[in-house]
User: Fold these one by one.
Assistant:
Number 1:
Amino acid sequence: MIGFNEGMKIRDASPADHPFVMEIYHDEVLNGVGTFDLEPLSDEKQRAWLAPHTASRYPLTVAEEGGRIAGWGSLKPWSDRRAYARSAEISVYVHRDCRGRGVARSLLMDLLERAREGGIVVLIARIAAENKASRALFGRAGFQSIGMMRRVGEKFGRVLDVELLDLHLDS
Ligand SMILES: CC(C)(COP(=O)(O)OP(=O)(O)OC[C@H]1O[C@@H](n2cnc3c(N)ncnc32)[C@H](O)[C@@H]1OP(=O)(O)O)[C@@H](O)C(=O)NCCC(=O)NCCS
């Protein structure tokens, strides 16, 4: 458990946090391009979404501020094929009302440490090309572009490119 900003605590999500995690995610489903889901997840899909986080190597973390969940971060297996076990996908989401004051940076820095502890070597982020805030967040943390998947998504009537970025924790 690591706190970076005064008054903010980064910790593992508990089951009581899951509805708040989902609320933040579903806001982005409906209003943003941070995820390519198009509709809120059913209860069954939420259970499947949470399933990888039962392993400590793949944490789901939250930023708690004044008793409220300001954002969450996660590490997930990049693939269920075991040769990919050294790699994980990283995601960070912050409540719309809590953006622009370092919540994402704190969640991200904590996840980098958690990944190292879990023996993960390569972190991968998938970011819609128009998602400038996310691109800047990961860029400033040292993630580098490894390619653009062109025109792979469509949301809000717009065809979207997706950039892949990676960070090698052993270099
Ligand atoms: C991207 C997101 C997580 C940033 O959260 P945040 O708490 O506002 O970010 P922070 O305040 O910690 O800012 C960290 C860095 O991100 C970048 N950043 C954040 N918001 C930005 C914006 N609106 N425009 C440009 N850069 C931005 C900056 O580089 C910033 O560092 P700096 O202030 O030192 O320059 C948030 O906008 C979000 O939840 N978006 C929807 C979900 C999403 O797209 N997640 C990423 C995909 S996994």
Note: The pocket of coenzyme A is lined by residues 28, 32, 34, 91-94, 99-105, 125, 127, 131-134, 136-137, 140 (CB under 6 Å).
Number 2:
Amino acid sequence: MKKLFLLPALALLGLLFFQGTTKTSNGYEVSPLEIMPDMPANVKAVVDQKCYGCHNAESKNDKGKAKLDWDAFEASKKSKQVAVMKKINEVVVNGDMPPKKYLENRPEGKLSEADIATLTSWSSGKKK
Ligand code: HEC
């Protein structure tokens, strides 16, 4: 099953490569190569631990799910991904996620300095 996706993904990757970098309205340089077709492993690790629980397709947290569904993220269009990444960058830079209320009972869910660096450099399209 997985293999079937490989060819179109590679073709897309080639296409994106020739397009070079895209500048978003926010002025971020986002290289499509860095977000497609997969997120870097270090970003995934942080997301898995600190964000995914509320932001997934099965989440009971309806508000969180509506705002961001990681299960849909990778399959969504690049333009959508870039928009979502901008939002992610915003909430992480502002320290709005994970929600403060949640952290009161789950201090271990707080982002470390390293987590913040990983998420912000990825979501702003910079190199690691
Ligand atoms: C405890 C559950 C929970 C966790 C953990 C959590 N979120 Fe959220 N997130 C929410 C909820 C609830 C909202 C909707 C908030 C609202 O609408 O006021 C939200 C909204 C968002 C939004 C949309 C903000 C907007 O203004 O559109 C982004 C982006 C986001 N979260 C990213 C993250 C990231 C990145 C992480 C991990 C670092 C994370 N979230 C962890 C519950 C969570």
Note: The first strand starts at residue 22 and ends at 23.
